[in-house]
Amino acid sequence: xxxxxxxxxxxxxxxxxxxxxxxxxxxxxxxxxxxxxxxxxxxxxxxxxxxxxxxxxxxxxxxxxxxxxxxxxxxxxxxxxxxxxxxxxxxxxxxxxxxxxxxxxxxxxxxxxxxxxxxxxxxxxxxxxxxxxxxxxxxxxxxxxxxxxxxxxxxxxxxxxxxxxxxxxxxxxxxxxxxxxxxxxxxxxxxxxxxxxxxxxxxxxxxxxxxxxxxxxxxxxxxxxxxxxxxxxxxxxxxxxxxxxxxxxxxxxxxxxxxxxxxxxxxxxx
Length: 270
Ligand code: KIV
Description:
This protein is α/β, with parallel strands linked by helices. It is 41% helix and 14% strand. It is built from 11 helices and 8 strands.
């Protein structure tokens, strides 16, 4: 992956952490295969998250719960193959770490060994502190994910619930840092609380629906590229409308095939 020529641009966990003190905002985007990872890497994102959102935006599930460890490893391998410089972080899927710290080390170890990714992310703060500590002590870099945790959907009753319990959010973020997490994702929390947590922590906060005061931002690529089907939360900014472009291009192709306009002479061999 890394060679001497691009070593200066290679994102590592220490460089990612140092960005906070250096005042550099961190850019993270999800990807699930080599094609898109390669594009995002070329565009200069700092980190690529192989999110368990793959279950929803690629596999067609309603939640992230069905995603398996083997599926995450399959996608992460592709992402690592397509990435030269960005830090690749892989989500630990539902029930791959909740059982015990030992289970988490075994599964996170598989992720790092089999995919070549640099770090894992898991949902939880205070209640996962023991596991975060165990992973860090096993030299497995870990990002914690607090606020709205999609794997808690059965407890929350829905995915887009803004988390407003200030005390809980502070304790979770603080516990994650104390346990050794090198960054914390803050999902769907009021920006005032996100700002305060960001100021309090010495590790970077990466926000999604947590306002502009975080040390970095993460989005699901299908959402920001306009590929999603009607998902339009307040926090989302669309940077492209690829869904319309794909529909138009494929409809045009279908029409050309049906009318005989494609292939033309210029596309045919003599
Ligand atoms: O799975 C995922 O894509 C995520 C982001 C929404 C942060 O956890």
